[in-house]
């Protein structure tokens, strides 16, 4: 078949950024994993068998066009997408021993950490095979961890929620005795248009001028004028970890997990709402407090955050529409000094709640407007690939990133973070479980009880990333990810530094939850 017959479309500027980043080895896989638990009849479900999961995976492949594409001319300025004519599920699906089975350790966080760290850096090296895979880790009879591992080129974080929802639906629908053919013939299809078409993301001259001049002018002139080639407001006092570096073959991403109980999350949402803020705004303040306590760089006076935002709502698309709809919202946070201000009744002092509320409004406004999105600036870059490479040796554009996928619900309904309050009610959880089990078409009773999300330590992006997701009726699981060497401290000190940040964040989160009962 000719290349013209396989051609789908050229990559958009945002897709070109992801393609170049991956081709250079700077960023590999997003991983969104979930614990699947089988209810009635679980003893008949063989979680060790590839056939158990082949049917649900075929259901996902049939549903999502992006699972059937490959990238061509990745090293050029005009990469494009082709469809594959056939797809062998055995190239994408594997069943692997879970680390907990080898260690005998019942701590879910420990083995999830090991799994995530082993997957985020695994390259998608075979150009003729779509860049994604599903790895199943049996935990116990009727219980397994399913990791969806995929290139950012084919989807953002919410796309993985759509995948798990479809995979769960496929598990519930399939007959236990069904034999699934693993080699699929792929019919012709059309790939949806990208999100970042120029007509959708208008850029004003005032928004364009600074970044454009920063690219075109010599660096010393741009620096003298205070211009920078990105939308973040990094200054001399901003902590950004180490300068950007990359050692081919030696780059390693690190992952550290944390868990927040569902009741604590619901309580934190209540007290956040009482202070006119969303949970994500509160999370930023907790992160800044933790960074301020454990990062001892004397020159640091502030942190610049980037919050990943989904632009689906701005164009009227469902919350889990597959594709890349992510943009970013930046914020600046002064380093927190020891407070003398009373904050015991709310877990945070008044100025932190004001900052949380202000950032929450900024995130909401950014997610609702298409004009002057940082993502739209990419189309003005003379060469996206060279622009990415030019970051080597320079400062990072922010201190940390927050990506909050909010709440996964298998019901198919859109979720808002405030709805997590319902999940703290045990009777709600039981009702939801019964609803899931009786909606199995007589085939397979199954539900997702926990979900976790990780991404690689970005070579050219923030030194730290906080990645969060929760399941309705379950805990909020988070990961802190970083590239080894990116934190500006000796490598041997990184684990202790991130553990301190993790511990302070979790303790302060619990403090907000415990204080809310007296406040609300």
From TrEMBL:
Ranges for the region named Disordered are: 410-431
Q: Which InterPro entries match?
A: Alcohol_O-acetyltransferase (IPR052058), Atf2/Sli1-like (IPR010828), CAT-like_dom_sf (IPR023213)
Q: Which SUPFAM superfamilies match?
A: CoA-dependent acyltransferases (SSF52777)
Q: What is the name of the protein in this document?
A: Alcohol acetyltransferase
Organism of this sequence: Apiospora hydei
């Amino acid at each position: 078949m000719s290349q013209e017959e396989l051609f789908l479309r050229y990559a958009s500027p945002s897709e070109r950024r992801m393609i170049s980043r991956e081709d250079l080895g700077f960023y590999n896989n997003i991983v969104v994993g979930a614990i699947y638990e089988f209810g009635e009849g679980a003893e008949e479900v063989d979680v060790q068998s590839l056939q158990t999961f082949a049917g649900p995976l075929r259901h996902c492949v049939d549903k999502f066009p992006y699972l059937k594409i490959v990238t061509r001319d990745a090293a050029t300025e005009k990469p494009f997408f082709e469809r594959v004519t056939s797809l062998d599920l055995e190239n994408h699906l594997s069943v692997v021993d879970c680390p907990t089975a080898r260690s005998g350790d019942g701590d879910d966080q420990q083995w999830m950490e090991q799994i995530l760290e082993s997957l985020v850096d695994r390259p998608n090296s075979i150009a003729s095979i779509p860049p994604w895979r599903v790895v199943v880790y049996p935990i116990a009879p009727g219980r397994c961890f399913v990791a969806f591992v995929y290139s950012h080129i084919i989807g953002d974080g919410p796309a993985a929620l759509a995948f798990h929802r479809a995979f769960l639906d496929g598990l519930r629908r399939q007959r236990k005795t069904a034999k699934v053919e693993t080699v699929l013939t792929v019919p012709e299809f059309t790939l949806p248009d990208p999100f970042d078409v120029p007509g959708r993301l208008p850029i004003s001259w005032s928004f364009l001028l600074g970044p454009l001049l920063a690219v075109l002018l010599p660096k010393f002139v741009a620096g003298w004028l205070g211009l920078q080639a990105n939308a973040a407001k990094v200054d001399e006092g901003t902590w950004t970890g180490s300068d950007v570096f990359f050692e081919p073959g030696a780059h390693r991403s690190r992952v550290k997990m944390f868990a927040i109980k569902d009741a604590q999350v619901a309580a934190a949402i209540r007290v956040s709402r009482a202070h006119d803020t969303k949970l994500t705004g509160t999370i930023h303040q907790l992160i800044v407090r933790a960074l301020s306590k454990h990062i001892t760089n004397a020159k640091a006076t502030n942190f610049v955050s980037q919050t990943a935002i989904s632009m689906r709502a701005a164009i009227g698309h469902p919350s889990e529409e597959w594709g890349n709809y992510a943009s970013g919202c930046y914020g600046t946070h002064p380093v927190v000094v020891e407070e003398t201000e009373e904050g015991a009744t709310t877990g945070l002092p008044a100025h932190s709640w004001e900052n949380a509320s202000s950032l929450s409004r900024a995130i909401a406004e950014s997610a609702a407007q298409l004009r002057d999105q940082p993502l739209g600036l990419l189309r003005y870059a003379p060469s996206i690939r060279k622009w990415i490479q030019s970051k080597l040796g320079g400062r990072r554009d922010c201190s940390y990133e927050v990506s909050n996928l909010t709440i996964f619900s298998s019901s198919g309904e859109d979720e808002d973070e405030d709805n997590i309050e319902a999940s703290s009610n045990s009777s709600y959880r039981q009702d939801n479980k019964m609803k899931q089990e009786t909606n199995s078409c007589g085939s397979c009773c199954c539900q997702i009880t926990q979900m976790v999300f990780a991404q690689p330590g970005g070579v050219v992006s923030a030194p730290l990333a906080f990645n969060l997701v929760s399941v309705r009726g379950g805990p909020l699981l988070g990961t802190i990810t970083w590239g080894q060497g990116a934190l500006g401290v000796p490598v041997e000190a990184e684990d202790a530094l991130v553990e301190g940040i993790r511990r302070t964040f979790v303790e302060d989160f619990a403090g907000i939850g415990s204080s809310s009962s007296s406040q609300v």
